[in-house]
Amino acid sequence: MRNNLKYFDKMRCLRKRSAVSFLGVLVICLLFMNLYIEDGYVLEGDKQLIRETATHQLNPERYVHTFKDLSNFSGSINISYRYLAGTPLPRKRYLTIGLSSVKRKKGNYLLETIKSIFEQSSYEELKEIAVVVQLADFDSAWCEGMVQDISQKFAHHVIAGRLIVIHVPEEYYPVLDGLKRNYNDPEDRVKFRSKQNVDYAFLLNFCANLSNYYVMLEDDVRCSKNFLTAVKKVITSREGSYWVTLEFSKLGYIGKLYHSHDLPRLAHFLLMFYQEMPCDWLLIHFRGLLAQKEVIRFKPSLFQHMGYYSSYKGAENKLKDDDFEEESFDIPDNPPANLHTNMNVFENYEASKAYSSTDEYFWGKAPSTGDFYGIVFEKPIKISKIKVVTGTEDRQNDILHHGALEVGEKIVGSKKGRQCTTYLRLGEFKNGNFEITDVEHKVLFDINCMRILVTKSQKEWLIIRSISIWTSQPPNQ
């Protein structure tokens, strides 16, 4: 704790720094750095590095050294948290949902957000989540009032160990006045966003060991029905692939999912650069530095911004996520499979991009009769529903004008060249789309393969926007 206070004392001395662009520095970091992530602990030398970063001028060499040591920032930050409601969790959960809230000049949506989390979750889902609310305002009267409201309205969840309310005393914060005014932001705006970065860092630090995964929400959010089940399906579908952040909303710091083991590292990162830029910008750099280059965002969105007034000065903020669907939607199972096609693929729009919940697609040049897009499942499966969508809003003519969907059995060939010998046609594409239900009642065999077959040549290119497969349990299982 003594080292921690010294660290923040040093941070109080921050003044004008080098004119070197922060973004330019990050580019230099990416050029010179080969970051390999391993879990470890914050050594004394790393703590000293944090203190030096807060008091020295920013320069490329120092940033390169700092980011190389980011792999060691896996230890927790020494902070004393006040439990305002709830107690330490008796067991680890699957998902922690974190919210940080401050007093607003206009409106308050925190209670509605908490209500939405619990109401949109089933009894079984509630067993697997923990909700941590950080009241991050320094107005003690406001905090006491909010704790009283939360404890009264959600007493059952507090008693059940699903809801915790915490607060970090002001003494642990750096002085937030006189900070750098990047992007010509007014001083009060810089103070607001810098404190918000510290708020989030403290919240992440607290939640690091509570569950396997963590999702960040803002305090003015509405949730989709059974969002946890949807999140679990997505995580399962990403097994075997590397990711740092999965996004379930395109707005702000809403619906961003992390492995819990990355939270200490992210907390340190936000503290190191708390005054540089808003948190959602810092998160982009964090993801990139940990080698996830592209955004992995899922649609429909699971979380919607519902506030009309920002927590900054009560300014109007009517942003809405137009990909949000509040009613329960069924994310497909898309079981593990090998994907292949004999079509001429355009650039990097490869076959795998159609068999995913992310906002990507397969794009092939004008297909001919007999061309196909094939799926060979790793194990025989029972299918209940299939849905295929071709074309996009921007390229509405790049659809499959004449095609059919078939399922197959009896695999032959080597691992790389496996295919089915027998196929059953389930139907034709209409207006570029195909959908069928009750497949398990129409197909009597376990399905090894599925293919989209072009039945007539077309001059237009073909976009397969999404392939969705829902499975059913085989008999006697």
Textual characterization of the structure:
The protein is of the alpha+beta class and 477 residues long. The protein has helices spanning 2-11, 22-32, 44-55, 60-68, 110-119, 123-126, 140-153, 155-159, 187-207, 227-237, 263-272, 279-289, 439-442; strands spanning 82-85, 93-101, 129-135, 163-167, 211-217, 221-223, 246-247, 256-259, 303-305, 337-341, 362-364, 372-390, 403-412, 419-428, 433-437, 447-454, 462-472. A hairpin with an 8-residue loop joins strand 7 and strand 8. Helix 1 (2-11) packs parallel to helix 3 (44-55), helix 2 packs across helix 4 and helix 9 runs antiparallel to helix 11. It is elongated and about 70 Å long. The N and C termini lie far apart (55 Å). The model is unreliable at 1-69 and 309-315 (pLDDT under 50).
Q: What key phrases describe this protein's structure?
A:
13 helices, transferase, 477 residues, acetylglucosaminyltransferase activity, 28% helix, alpha+beta, disordered N terminus, 8-stranded antiparallel sheet, 7-stranded mixed sheet, single chain, 24% strand, transmembrane
Summed up:
This is MGAT4 family member C. Strands 10, 11, 12, 13, 14, 15, 16 and 17 form an 8-stranded antiparallel sheet that branches. The chain has 13 helices and 17 strands.
